[in-house]
Fold:
Amino acid sequence: MVEVQHNLPPADAAAIVHHFNVETHNRVDYWLIGNEPNLEAGVTGASYSADFNAQFDAMKAADHTIKIGGGTTASYANGFLTQFLTGSGSRVDFVDFHFYGTDVSQDQTTLLARLPVISGYLTTARALINTMVPARAAQIGLQVGEWNISYREDPIGYTGFAAMWDADVLGRILSGGASSRVWGTKTSSMSIIYNKVHSTETPPAGFAEDTPMPLYEALSMYTGAGLFPPIGKTEPFNPVPKDPNPDSSPPGSAALPFMPSLPNPDGPDNSSYSTPKGAPRSDDRGDPDSASGMTPKQESDMFDQLLGGGK
Structure:
């Protein structure tokens, strides 16, 4: 998915589509116009709609098969989206808005109270589309195009509570009939995998470079992480091998799977307790030190499906 500025000249937007989908054949099927235009001074739903329509027509002329989303509001902005659908309901392929739990608060009670809010937003958004564009309502999708427990560095993003909160939000988005594109960075509390912002940074307790973050664990509740079937499947995806030393299991018990790498509070080398002594490290297991037991390609494909990444 590629996002273009809503005030970009339409010919430039069309040229970007042509570059990816015609010249380089590095196809991008899903596009967004704008990013939180309701926070920009002087921009209304009506003025944004005019920009959107001009870009939409130019981009579709470059490749009529692409899907283009609009709205892209900071939180659910009913008035702005009403104006947008009034002017662009005959065009837009999906309506996008953003959702975050907090910016500075670490109060878990407050954050838990935020969970039903996203469900309400999705219900309201779908009702708005049905009302404003009844003839096309079934053709217009919904997307929560940015979400996370916080949109800035926040200590709560390093906690187990964050993993459960993120998993709950994703479940509500999917059960609400919307697609999901989680917002994060390669650093700080918003990331999927921990990386330092600065080389001198001291990681939080329990984390080291390239170790899974709570957001990763939240997504793993849906992918299965090789331990149980992903959502909608009956078998695990690249299942984690059974314990290669079954004699170590209690008498009469089934061999247990050995766990993939997890953050080691004692240091970055976590292989000593994530892989049993003498365990095979064959290629069919993927990366033996990865957080999921999958190959990087398998992880990338699975997260793309959940996050709306890539295309």
